TrEMBL record:
Belongs to the DtxR/MntR family. Homodimer. It comes from candidate division MSBL1 archaeon SCGC-AAA259B11. This is HTH dtxR-type domain-containing protein. GO terms for molecular function: DNA binding; DNA-binding transcription factor activity; protein dimerization activity; transition metal ion binding.
Amino acid sequence: MMSGLTESEEEYLEAIYRLKGYDRQVKVSELAKNLDVKEPSVVEMLKKLENKGFLDYERYAGVKLTEKGEEEGMRVIRRHRLAERLLCDVLDRDISQVHEEACRLEHSLANETADEIARVLDGPTTCPHGNPIPDGEPVMDEDAIKLTEGEEGEEYIVLSIPEEREDIQRLLPLAILPGSEIELAEKPSLSALMIKRGEDRLALGRDIASKIMVKPCEKRKRYRHRARAGR
């Protein structure tokens, strides 16, 4: 491996980073679900990575990346998302195909090669799914929320969509992509969310809606700001 880590070790650091393990403690159960691995196997790998100085693991509290682990997790994420951009923008791969291929490429790309890809592509800031491409420090939009956390009647801009092929194939016909504007028309307590796009109303299950990151539309934010100022 380019980093001296195995593919499996890199995948663990990447997954912990994705779950914001640079900012909080990630539960073993949460990580096991994300990686689709049994919890005892997760614990075994965490202990191995802790011995190498990539993370701090506490039996009941969970796991958090050290500075060394954060840097390595970020590098894997960066290689993955730049590989997706290369596949999508240069090789014209369909957006539903790039995640799986990038999962393989991320382990073989050198960090220097990833930097060259970034230069060739003129410094992209997001992957095709809308997720930020980190460059030296974690990138977060302070206004970003899960669609399931939105409020009825509010309008949102889609920041990112899930990467899995099945989810993308569900969202593409609905034209729900990064940059799309949608309204959360109805939000029942248990059943599917009702999304409005123009004159169309679409039902989205909570499982897939929870993977879509959005932020309030600028026009709504400006309206709220004026309303508060006028009080």
